[in-house]
Write a structure and sequence with these properties.
This protein has 16 helices and 17 strands. By secondary structure, the protein is α+β, with helices and mostly antiparallel strands. The radius of gyration is 34 Å and the shape is elongated. It comes from Polaromonas eurypsychrophila.
Length: 541
């Protein structure tokens, strides 16, 4: 059969060297298509995946009630639903476009490990011989790479590793195939390529001038950017042992051992289903809070800063002129970035730092256009032109040169004008950077009490001064009444703040207990995962 009558399918788990192997084949004349996914930081030399192939495989898995990272088994009759018939037609149309011109075609997509039977059924109608390359890599390194690239827990990556590897091996048993280890490809790509060419009968131009140099330039040890975390891999228990068994059984193909392993894994897939549901919820939380680690996601609240503006100092603020920045509260200084989403003219800002009661220390505000600085507020109180009734300037009370503000509710704000009384035209390249520290509002109690103590001493001093005067007794009586009222007010404020302080401390204790309960639940979940996945075959009876 001629070279043009063959089609190479490259199978294997994600991050297992499928891109490197396919790219090498393309250096020696194989054709992967024109609509290839672009290279990125994950694969700087390219994926060599046709967008049409990836879209088709995603549609196939969706029609089967699954997805590429589903940890559950595909239904036994996944190819039979009526939704599959239009997809068969789409595969046929794709093959028709692929085989118009002469040449060796290569189709690569890790999802083919699960969907290959449907592709092979359609390919039979074209009289084209399929051949298969299965790429394998150490499972612990794959899990580490998936963690770095996609944030997957190691247990999930190993489950997918077994699912993809076992499907790829089973679906290609009746097809001419070869298996390539990623470590072998990096160590001796020429020897691996020669073996692939011989075992699949590809007829690659291995001796053509200049191709060896292109191959050497494409394959290099630098492609291996993930290192095995032995401790984390071993903590995955029996699942790690199963993945390692599959890796060794594929490197030196052992059908009997793989069949036994497949039965064990099918049992595990059923047993781990409850944990898989929980993990999907955890991943949803991670996608919603992308900027901090999982412990912080459980422990700290979501925050929001808001910026409004007007084009003149006399103008009222318009709700249409608002930009937001969502971030996660944690201890220490924070950088909050507010980007303008339209062109505008600005003469004053209304700034809301947080959407909850908080004590905020402002180190600086910087208005930028790209990297250029348009304005810098070292102390916003110098440019303050208004504030809400629930926003209090505590800078002097805190005895600190850094601006300190107490915001008592989500409607607290401060209005400021631009340094130097500027009026600026801003565009989409402009943004306001906030360098702030945020603490619970209870952190403002001490400076407030200190100021009230100072006020009390001043009131007492004023009372004594008026008591020493003998003139204007009538007015003096009114002054004494005012001073008495101020003293009483101070006492009430002090009592109120003390009660507020006690309430805040009690709430903080409650939050601490809730946080401990969440972390304890997370630890119990880890134990549950180990029991359900790592040790299910350790029967105590």
């Amino acid at each position: 059969m001629s070279v043009s009558a063959k089609c190479i399918f490259v199978l294997g788990m994600h991050r297992s060297g499928t891109s490197a192997l396919t790219g090498l084949l393309c250096q020696f004349g194989a054709i992967a298509g024109k609509d290839l996914l672009p290279a990125n930081d994950s694969n700087p030399k390219g994926f060599f995946e046709s967008r049409a192939v990836v879209d088709l495989n995603n549609a196939i898995l969706q029609a089967a009630g699954s997805s590429w990272d589903d940890m559950q088994a595909l239904p036994v009759d996944w190819q039979r639903p009526p939704e599959m018939q239009p997809l068969r037609s789409d595969i046929a149309a794709l093959f028709s476009s692929l085989f118009v011109a002469e040449g060796l075609r290569v189709i690569k997509d890790p999802r083919l490990s699960k969907t290959l039977p449907l592709w092979l059924d359609v390919l039979m109608e074209f009289g084209v011989q399929p051949v298969v390359v299965i790429c394998v890599r150490e499972p612990g390194t794959v899990a580490q790479s998936e963690k770095l690239m996609k944030g997957f827990p190691s247990l999930k990556s190993l489950l997918l590793y077994l699912d993809y590897g076992l499907h790829a091996e089973l679906h290609s048993r009746n097809v001419t195939r070869t298996i390539v280890a990623y470590s072998d490809l990096l160590a001796d790509w020429q020897g691996v390529l020669k073996r692939v060419d011989e075992e699949l009968g590809l007829g690659l131009p291995l001796e053509a001038p200049g191709l060896a140099a292109r191959g050497a330039d494409f394959i290099s040890p630098g492609l291996n950017r993930s290192q095995l975390d032995v401790g984390e891999f071993q903590r995955c228990g029996t699942l790690a042992e199963m993945a390692h068994t599959l890796y060794e059984a594929l490197r030196v193909p052992n059908a009997n051992e793989i069949d036994v392993l497949r039965q064990r894994f099918i049992a595990y897939q059923g047993d781990m289903q409850p944990w898989g549901v929980v993990l999907q919820h955890v991943q949803a939380i991670e996608e919603r809070f992308p900027n901090v680690d999982l412990g912080q996601r459980f422990s700290y609240p979501r925050m929001q800063s808001r910026l409004s503006w007007t084009d003149t100092l006399a103008a009222e603020f318009d709700l249409a002129n608002v930009v937001l920045s969502n971030w996660v509260y944690r201890a220490g200084r924070q950088s909050v970035h507010l980007s303008f989403d339209r062109r505008c003219v600005v003469e004053k800002f209304r700034l809301t730092f947080v959407n909850r009661p908080a004590y905020v220390r402002v180190h600086s505000l910087v208005l930028r256009q790209g990297s250029a600085v348009l304005g810098r507020w070292e102390h916003i109180r110098e440019w303050l032109i208004g504030q809400s009734d629930s926003a209090f300037d505590l800078t002097d009370r805190a005895n600190d040169a850094i601006d300190a503000w107490l915001f008592l509710d989500s409607k607290s704000y401060v209005d400021i004008k631009l340094p130097g009384n500027q009026r600026l035209s801003l565009d989409l390249h402009c943004h306001l950077d906030l360098d702030i520290e945020v603490a619970d509002s209870s952190a403002a109690v001490n400076p407030l009490l200190a100021k009230l103590g100072q006020l009390s001493a001043e009131v007492i001093k004023l009372r004594k001064q008026w008591q020493a005067r003998a003139t204007k007794p009538a007015k003096e009586k009114h002054v004494f009444a005012l001073v008495s009222d101020l003293t009483d007010l101070h006492g009430l404020l002090q009592q109120g703040l003390q009660m507020r302080d006690q309430k805040i401390v009690a709430q903080q204790h409650l939050f601490d207990h809730m946080r401990e309960d969440l972390l304890r639940a997370e630890a119990q979940l880890d134990l549950l995962k180990d029991v359900m996945i790592g040790n299910l075959d350790d029967d105590p009876f």
